[in-house]
Amino acid sequence: GNFPVITVDGPSGSGKGTICSLLARELGWNLLDSGALYRLVALAARHHGVALDDESALVVLAAHLDVQFEMPANQNEVSIILEGEEVTNSLRTEECGSDASVVAALGPVRDALLERQRAFVSAPGLIADGRDMGTVVFPQAQLKVYLTASAEERANRRYNQLINKGLGASLQAILVDIQARDARDMNREVAPLKPATDAISLDTTKLSIEAVLAAVLDQARHKG
Ligand code: C5P
Question: What's the catalysed reaction (predicted)?
């Protein structure tokens, strides 16, 4: 089908996840969290004892991901089930994100996930959250947004999230991890993180979530 797509790309911690779920709710559109797919491949690799540099085995895992996204009654967050096991929380760890960025650097793994991502397009429209949504996966998207924020601000946000969840965290360790992930995502050969030439860039360092959401909705209405 030819349904509208809004892509939101940017580095980790730029606020993409939050903005995308608010956008999807506000517009009543579907949501693709493409990072979750790379995280699932990394997690499946762990479960099956596949090394993160075993490209051919990783491609097989990516092509055959047995995953369900379930929306439990009375909850507003999806549960993610991998091979019958609930993995919603293990997917969100820093370790899993870091492993995901290692497998995501492999072109054949990305190719194996391409059609699965495009299949998320459905009525009335799709919000696509990732690194290459506007550049590779949905080049024809109606609106492309690129969110950035300073690495220090992104580390602070992540730190506060962890502290609010009652988890221990080191701000310095988070910053180092974010910088390493940025470098891997921006400097890889295939589908590096960068704004599409026709993307609207928004630096969210000093913006509230509400302000970012309002700016994106405003753009969406202009293009609608
Ligand atoms: O967005 P999230 O932190 O869940 O993504 C985890 C990792 O997956 C990213 O650091 C990136 O390397 C990879 N990724 C990607 N392309 C996407 C989404 C995520 O390469 N579209």
Answer: CMP + ATP = CDP + ADP; dCMP + ATP = dCDP + ADP
